[in-house]
Amino acid sequence: MTLGSTIRDAREAAHLSIESLSESTSIRMGLLNEMENNNFSHCGGDTYARGHLRNIAARVGINPQVFLDLYNEEHSTEHRAIQDLLVENNVMQVPREEKKLSWKVPALISILVLFVIGLFQIVISNQNSDTPTTSRSTVSASETRTPTASPTPTASPTPAASPTPSVKPQTGPIILTIAATRGNSYIDIVVDGKHVSKGSFFQGDSKTFQGNTGISIYLSNPAGLDLTLNGKQLPPLGGQNEEVRRTFR
Fold first, then answer.
1. Which helix (H) or strand (E) holds 3?
2. Rounded to whole angstroms, what are the CA distances from 199 to 50, 114, 187, 219, 247?
3. What residue spans define the domains of the chain?
4. pLDDT tens digit string along 78-116?
5. Is the pTM here over 0.70, yes or no?
6. Which whole-number Å values give the CA distances from 184 to 109, 188, 210, 223, 241, in the listed order?
7. Could you write out the DSSP letters of every residue in 114-156?
């Protein structure tokens, strides 16, 4: 059952015509028809759509959360956006074990380099043997070059190249306070990879969240909110009716 059919069934169960529901909620009949057909594209965005759903729920005598949960599952762009945010910040990704470089690879490279150098020296010595006057100087030059070329196992410092995960020192908990001082908003909060708060945030409300590794937030209408991070008030994250996503670590 879709959200639109749920609205229609609730209206009919309350013995209301669509005209009377339009008059009592100040929502256009055309828009109500679209909503009952599960079309919310003309509601003006998620914030206005949720406001219409609350008005309808109050008129037909149903808990508005029923409509809001269905809307978030079927239509909300915010609900999908927060999932993308979590993936982007590695909240929902499965950790992968890093592969260490095998010692066999640099050892094989060192052997090949030594083989090529030895073959090169043999070819040079054979060419120089055809000219007796320069053979002695060539041999001495080749002998002096061999020790310098032999330290080719410079690839041996590969143990240092093997990636070792760096551990960042723990600097203390992350404390974030959100206060709706100038207007309403919608928030979705993830603390240390877990959802802790999601839904409407009305003017006058205030909530504090504490995490150890990170706090990811989604906010609508950030101009109406004041945020304090670890006792320091942050500048406004956006303007009126904008949508903002941030992660604090």
1. helix 3-13
2. 10, 68, 6, 10, 18
3. 3-75, 104-160, 169-248
4. 655 555 555 555 555 545 555 565 778 888 898 999 999
5. no
6. 65, 14, 22, 10, 10
7. HHHHHHHHHHHHHHHTT-HHHHHHHHHHHHHHHHHHTT-GGGT
Query: How high does pLDDT run on average in the chain?
Result: 81
The DSSP code for 99 is: P
User: For helices 46-60 and 18-25, what crossing angle results, to 10°?
Assistant: 120
Please tell me what DSSP assigns to residue 164. Answer: -
β 194-201/232-233 pair status: unpaired
Distance between CA 60 and CA 149 in Å, rounded?
88
Cα–Cα distance for residue pair 89/66, rounded to 1 Å:
30
**Cβ proximity of 239 and 198 under 8 Å:** no
CATH class of 3-75: mainly alpha
Give the contacts of 150 (CB within 8 A, at least 6 positions apart): 114, 117
**What is the b/e burial string over 24-62, where b = at least 16 CB atoms within 10 angstroms of the residue's CB?**
ebebeeebbebbbebebeebeebbebbebbbbbbebbeb
Kindly report, residue by residue over 159-212, the tens digit of the pLDDT. 444 444 443 444 789 999 999 999 999 999 999 999 999 999 999 999 999 999
Tokens of 30: 């055309």
Beta carbons within 8 Å of 190's beta carbon, 6+ residues apart: 82, 86, 91, 196, 215, 216, 217
**Residue given tokens 């995490």 in the structure block:** 211
The DSSP H or E segment spanning 195 is strand 194-201
